[in-house]
Design goal:
The chain has about 170 residues and is mainly beta. It folds into two domains: about 80 residues, Chitinase A, domain 3, CATH 3.10.50; about 55 residues, Thrombin, subunit H (Beta Barrel), CATH 2.40.10. The longest helix is centred in the first third of the chain and has 7 residues.
Amino acid sequence: MEISPQCVVALTWTLKDTIGETLDQLDEPVEFFVGGDDLLVKIEEALMGYSAGETLDLHLEPEEAFGDYDEMLVFLEKRSHFPPELEEGMTIEGHALPGACSPEAPKDLFYTVTEIYPEHVVLDGNHPLAGIALRIHIKVVGVREANEEELENKSMGSGFFKIIPQAPGSSQLH
């Protein structure tokens, strides 16, 4: 079966920046719904017509991936607004930010704690891969028709590099 809109594809990948540093590696296949929000548009477009066993190499500019880095999404907040156990690398949902935080911080983003000072905390609402051109080597492990539930949800719940609140020190992007 070839990849087409509204099917399920199982992929593995190696993601690198333009100087060749590996940013993420997915060795075990993960299923994604094609035609929903699980994959970046540029990746879906490139995968059309591919079958299990085939590989693909893509170069994505920031605007085709996670956008340019936006300095307006970086906020300096008072340390006293956060619990003592806060650590660098933690991810906080925007709607869960303490009420005393900047009202300019969009509530629909995830914020990464990038620095902690005695009096302040730096929160970054950019995706960790924003502003970075990416090279991705993809292997199509499997392709199948989507079932009724998958067609209704238009997702396998495994979006491509979606931010998920995680424990400190976790480097998982997928």
